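Section 5.1 Outputs to date
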Amino acid sequence: MKRMFSLFIVFSFLLVTNAQTGLNIPLKKELDRLIPLDQKYRAALIANMRGKGDSLAIVYGVNKELLNEHLWKLQAAIDSLNTIRIEEIISKYGYPGVSLVGNSSNEVAFYIIQHSKVVDKYLPVIKEAAEKNELRFQLYAMMLDRSLMFNDKEQIYGTQSSGMSIKSKQTGQWENLSFIWPIKDPLHVNQRRKSAGFANSVEDHARSMGINYQIYTLEEILKWREEISKADNN
């Protein structure tokens, strides 16, 4: 009898705790199932970039030269389905933040949108969530930077990188270049990063991605892109 009474107390406590937190447990579990899908082929793409393409090509049954294209096609199909579901969730609940799905799960919708084609559409939603402490401000900063980069504007916090082939002035050959996308007022970017909650500098951030940080202007990047476009059309 005492054991039954104890179990009843525990069960009652769980019910009260759940009611107090207001967490939507089914939604939290659904979001937790989506995030591994968001990363499913991205890990392989990074591994390919780091020189493991030979073994991955065998695993996926494609030529090494076609591996990137194959992996992106597989990931794009997942991203499309994930985005549709997240849009449905936001339409019903608003942004699924900390108060709705708890810590860690509150970042799932952000990452899926960040990897989608609807960044600009949901940037105001992400901003509002960050301002209400439903989401880390750093994540809003990352999405703002991505939106600016996608629209050929200077980023603010130096979170986004890009890459292209440029013609070397020394050799005249086309070479791959990875770089941090141009930053507005780059001399003060680390101050802005610190204010936004980033623990590392833009130089350290670049280094973590294997990029040697260098300041480029937007005019330089757009000029290089124009040169590439002309070369491709010749």
